[in-house]
């Protein structure tokens, strides 16, 4: 490993062969090397660089054209949107003015419908009260009739003995027999 590094270190100590020798002074050789490299790059890279710049220019121009087209399209859409907005605002004003009159009309209709419903409910209430009164009166009548009937039966049972019972049955049979003779 030492021999490889020694050969690089000793480059500056090579004996000169004829008129050719290596100049190891970096400050003196660096501008010359750079000018040679730049000259070669400019000579051979000029076409490549021109092509790259032309392509870049074309891309920039097409991007600008596309941007202009997009801008025009956006302006057209903006104008259409503004026209639609104006139309919608006019319609909204119409709806607002018509809506207020419609609301008033609906309010009057609702009040009238509510009054009609209240009248119907009042009629149903009165009919229900009348029906309930009739039912209560009928129940009271039935209860009074049942109580009267029970009292009458109780009185008859107390008053009737077997002989009176026999005479009542015989009289009823006689009445039924005379009714039967008339129908024949």
Automatic annotation (TrEMBL):
<keyword id="KW-0138">CF(0)</keyword>
<feature type="transmembrane region" description="Helical">
    <location>
        <begin position="32"/>
        <end position="49"/>
    </location>
</feature>
<keyword id="KW-1133">Transmembrane helix</keyword>
<comment type="similarity">
    <text>Belongs to the ATPase B chain family.</text>
</comment>
<dbReference type="GO" id="GO:0045259">
    <property type="term" value="C:proton-transporting ATP synthase complex"/>
</dbReference>
<dbReference type="Pfam" id="PF00430">
    <property type="entry name" value="ATP-synt_B"/>
</dbReference>
<protein>
    <recommendedName>
        <fullName>ATP synthase subunit b, chloroplastic</fullName>
    </recommendedName>
</protein>
<dbReference type="GO" id="GO:0009535">
    <property type="term" value="C:chloroplast thylakoid membrane"/>
</dbReference>
<keyword id="KW-0472">Membrane</keyword>
<dbReference type="GO" id="GO:0046933">
    <property type="term" value="F:proton-transporting ATP synthase activity, rotational mechanism"/>
</dbReference>
<keyword id="KW-0066">ATP synthesis</keyword>
<keyword id="KW-0793">Thylakoid</keyword>
<keyword id="KW-0406">Ion transport</keyword>
<comment type="function">
    <text>Component of the F(0) channel, it forms part of the peripheral stalk, linking F(1) to F(0).</text>
</comment>
<keyword id="KW-0150">Chloroplast</keyword>
<keyword id="KW-0175">Coiled coil</keyword>
<feature type="coiled-coil region">
    <location>
        <begin position="64"/>
        <end position="98"/>
    </location>
</feature>
<keyword id="KW-0813">Transport</keyword>
<keyword id="KW-0375">Hydrogen ion transport</keyword>
<keyword id="KW-0812">Transmembrane</keyword>
<dbReference type="InterPro" id="IPR002146">
    <property type="entry name" value="ATP_synth_b/b'su_bac/chlpt"/>
</dbReference>
<keyword id="KW-0934">Plastid</keyword>
<comment type="function">
    <text>F(1)F(0) ATP synthase produces ATP from ADP in the presence of a proton or sodium gradient. F-type ATPases consist of two structural domains, F(1) containing the extramembraneous catalytic core and F(0) containing the membrane proton channel, linked together by a central stalk and a peripheral stalk. During catalysis, ATP synthesis in the catalytic domain of F(1) is coupled via a rotary mechanism of the central stalk subunits to proton translocation.</text>
</comment>
<comment type="subunit">
    <text>F-type ATPases have 2 components, F(1) - the catalytic core - and F(0) - the membrane proton channel. F(1) has five subunits: alpha(3), beta(3), gamma(1), delta(1), epsilon(1). F(0) has four main subunits: a(1), b(1), b'(1) and c(10-14). The alpha and beta chains form an alternating ring which encloses part of the gamma chain. F(1) is attached to F(0) by a central stalk formed by the gamma and epsilon chains, while a peripheral stalk is formed by the delta, b and b' chains.</text>
</comment>
């Amino acid at each position: 490993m030492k021999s490889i590094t020694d050969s690089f270190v000793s480059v500056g100590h090579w004996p000169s062969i004829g008129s050719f020798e290596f100049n190891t002074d970096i400050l003196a050789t660096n501008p010359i090397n750079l000018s040679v490299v730049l000259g070669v790059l400019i000579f051979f890279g000029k076409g490549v660089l021109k092509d790259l710049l032309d392509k870049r220019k074309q891309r920039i121009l097409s991007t600008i054209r596309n941007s202009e087209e997009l801008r025009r399209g956006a302006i057209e859409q903006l104008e259409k949107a503004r026209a639609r907005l104006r139309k919608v605002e006019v319609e909204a004003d119409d709806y607002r003015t018509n809506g207020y009159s419609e609301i008033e009309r609906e309010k009057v209709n609702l009040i009238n419908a509510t009054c009609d419903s209240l009248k119907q409910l009042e009629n149903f209430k009165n009919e229900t009260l009348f029906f309930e009164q009739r039912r209560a009166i009928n129940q009271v009548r039935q209860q009074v009739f049942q109580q009267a009937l029970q009292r009458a039966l109780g009185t008859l049972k107390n008053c009737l003995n077997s002989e009176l019972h026999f005479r009542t049955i015989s009289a009823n049979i006689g009445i039924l027999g005379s009714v039967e003779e008339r129908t024949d």
